[in-house]
Amino acid sequence: MALLDFLFLGETKELDDRTRATLPGDFVPLSDGVTHYELNGPRDGPPVVLVHGFSVPYFIWDTTFAALAAAGFRVLRYDLYGRRYSDRPRLANNRALFARQFIELLDALKLEQVDVVALSMGGVVAADLAARHPQRLRKLVFVDPAGFDLGLPWPVKLLNIPLVGEFLLGVLGRLGQNTLLDSIAADFFDPPEGLWESYKRDYLAAMQFKGFKRSILSTLREGMLEEDLDLYRGLAASRLPTQLFWGEHDKTVPYRHAQRFCELVPQTEFHSVASARHIQHIERPETVHRLMIDFLNRS
């Protein structure tokens, strides 16, 4: 046990082989740990990988996963390290780690070249992959990507401070828990009835596995939510076909950054989504999925 692990009250469950045998989805060992994933759709369909954001794991893609599989794509979604049922390696939760996880997962599943659909912090992962491994990518779809000034509230900024972050998330567990839950609730504009309650239940269940809060703190402290416009300048240089969705009422990654993204990445096909905040693929699936499928199907 690491020195500060005892502070993370509420993390009572071990994520081991015995536990995984009772959990849904599939698991594959990679060099930095075991990754939890799900693969669906026709075996000969064009492969698409869904990359989730900062803390909500792959269930954030439920509707998109189903829509793309029904449209004939071979769809892969997975939990980033530190989230839900993937391992929590005692490593810096940074771009290098998440890029290595992505490429090793493709290799393990024998997927040579893929389209990527990325949400929020997943956009940082996707843009970084375009710089590191452009030959493995075909098209990119961004949904309210991070990598811009988020104007993070002061409770979140406090988590960056060593020991203070551990204390807030651990010893004052309910305060840290509520800070994370409040940030997720703010992603919704007008959620379907019962959806928030379902997400909250699943999210809290995942928080019980040891190492979650440590991973969240590491991700923050490694700058995964900080502004880095060079990422998107590099994406422009890659010339990869790019599509962008942004909710007009997004408060998590403010809507004003959509214009800056399009300036930085001129090849972008941009769609502004009305009556939506940060996760319009859930709240406005009839619009987002139709446009996304059309883009991915184009030669």
Please specify the SSE layout and strand pairing.
Blueprint: H1 17-20, E1 26-30, E2 33-40, E3 47-51, H2 62-70, E4 74-78, H3 95-108, E5 114-119, H4 121-132, E6 137-143, H5 154-158, H6 164-171, H7 173-185, H8 195-206, H9 212-221, H10 229-238, E7 242-247, H11 257-264, E8 268-273, H12 280-283, H13 285-297
Parallel strand pairs: 3-4, 3-5, 5-6, 6-7, 7-8
Antiparallel strand pairs: 1-2, 2-4
Helix pairs in contact: 4-10, 6-7
Report on the structure:
The chain has 299 residues and is an alpha/beta fold. Helix content is 41%, strand content 16%. The protein has 13 helices and eight strands. Strands 1-2-4-3-5-6-7-8 form an eight-stranded mixed sheet, with helices on both faces. Strand 5 (114-119), helix 4 (121-132) and strand 6 form a beta-alpha-beta unit.
Q: Quick summary of this structure?
A:
The chain has 299 residues and is of the alpha/beta class. It is built from 13 helices and 8 strands.
Identify the notable features of this structure and list them briefly:
299 residues, alpha/beta, eight-stranded mixed beta sheet, 13 helices
